[in-house]
User: What shape does this take?
Amino acid sequence: MLKVSEEQGQRAIAFILRYGSKVSTVLMGVGVCLLAVKGLEPSLTAQPGVRPGRFLPEFLRFDAAALTQAGIFLLLLTPVFAVVAAVVSFALERDYKYFLISLGVLTVVLLSIGFAIG
Amino acid sequence: MALAFVKAAGLVVLGMLAGGVGALTGIGGGIIITPALTLLYNVPIHYAIGTSLCCVIATSSGAAANYIEQKLSDIRLAMTLELTTTVGAVGGAVVAGVLSRETLAVFFSVLLAYAGATMVRRSLKAGPVEDDRGGCYKVRHLPLGLLGSGVAGTISGLLGVGGGPVKVPIMYLVMGVPFKVASATSNFMIGVTAAASAFIYYSRGEVRPFITAPTAIGVVLGAGLGTRLMRRTPSRWLVALFSGIMFYLAVVMIWKSLHGGFAR
Assistant: This one.
């Protein structure tokens, strides 16, 4: 089984946090700029209706609302991915105590996502 | 330019201010964004909290990446405390859905006043905070720390702040963690805590994209600027200024909640 050092594990967590926030900011920025270019004027509290089944096609068409939503969703997921990285890195470091603790944190976060979806 | 985009540009500026001041003072930008959106933009407080949670994640992710690489964040301690914090955050977010916005606003005002008083007390203390970079330390009173972290999580879920103003004093004062390690570890934790409750706000439609996106973009830009400015600005000036802002917002929010001044 692959074994990684503590430093490698922490580098992976830092990488996910840094690029998760950067990519989500770029997606949100492009979405807002496209709204401006297209001359759309949504009210601040508007909730754009991007249907789940149409999300990917709308995203690939560079739809402003879909890009903005994707940016927000990626932003929300970034810390979750970081916890996943912590679980994996503790497992690979064979630090089973902290593997179980971080798995517990991940479980609570995933339950909250499940609760939100349900 | 269309009014909507003037407002969006204003949100970017607000986000930059919150991200900058949050990075400078070390308590995150959520504590500024929620009251500013409700008071300046007349945004319903549940939408303001949803936006604030996203901005806490944005600030946390960027800053925590740096702190982890600098070996200032204690990931093991963060994960241990997150066990109770995330449970508290989910509970807080669920309860927030059935509480009135006036009740939430009073809770928030109390938190602002507490954070302001803590910062004033700290700024009046003579001598700089120790410049430790981790080193050897032994975590004390872990059960008390877990309990305090649960409370911090509940506050975060209820009010859309990262819980940093509660977590840092608990780690530093109760658990014997060096101040810089406590701040850096809290920075990593607040993103995970906010994510645990943010999905619940998102599913209720309380993360409005045209408020959240410009504010979060501003927060990321402001936090980057704030990190650079921090090296040159005496922190005591910043603390005094920011405490004054928090007390002012606390008084105004209590006044508005008592007079039914929040948007429906």
Observations:
- Chain A touches chain B through 55 residues (CB under 8 Å).
- The mean pLDDT of chain A is 84.
- Chain A has one domain: 6-39+52-117.
